[in-house]
């Protein structure tokens, strides 16, 4: 409740908020520690954690458990990536109830058909539902939330599906009219041109959300200059950082035939104890173990 209110307030102040991806409570704790404004509970990252493609294979329950566990360990607002809403408007109603109860501050629902295919893959099957069908899903989400501060973010994949800017703008406008608090517009172009053009053409009142993974040259100062972006999501940087770091350390241990060489380059066991709240557990032992 508290974090949904603070997220909505900061959006209303028209500040650019920065959300970082996370796939576990531990990564969420590190997002908070680094100073981001929100946590992006990414479906892509959780799928990758299971070694699976992001194609509606990881269940809502698995993702929801992750969000609930994160909410228990961080106070930053959690923006939950709920893909297509796991089905039609009835599934959306169930999902919104569950994610709100789990402690999320916002959900992002995308206008692809279920089961979805991850957005950034080359040659992906990118099928969208009809605009009116998705309008019904957004209306269902808005009607379901209990906390009026809980944010419903509509995501259009029209650019990802190569439908062109005109359709992307039309869909975004329809979703705003349906009650979405923000509109996420995704692009997989290698340059920011497509997103910058969309943002310049956007006449809606609600702020936009972008995920500059494919076009990382779009810096926060350039995003601010566009004037219409409310949230920038760093969509998969937690899992990519993990993969690079683990590969490096594992490879060096195999090569050296021991762990001495990497010991100074990785987190100490004491640091991990701290992230686990070991100090508090010890105090509880002292207080209550008889
Ligand atoms: C995710 O992180 O799960 C996203 C962003 O939805 S993307 O993978 O770029 O579609
Ligand atoms: Mg996703």
TrEMBL record:
UniProt keywords, alphabetically: Pyruvate
Protein name: Phosphoenolpyruvate phosphomutase
Recorded family membership: Belongs to the isocitrate lyase/PEP mutase superfamily. PEP mutase family.
One MF annotation (Gene Ontology) recorded for this entry: catalytic activity
Pfam annotation, one family: PEP_mutase
InterPro entries: ICL/PEPM (IPR039556), Pyrv/PenolPyrv_kinase-like_dom (IPR015813), Pyrv_kinase-like_dom_sf (IPR040442)
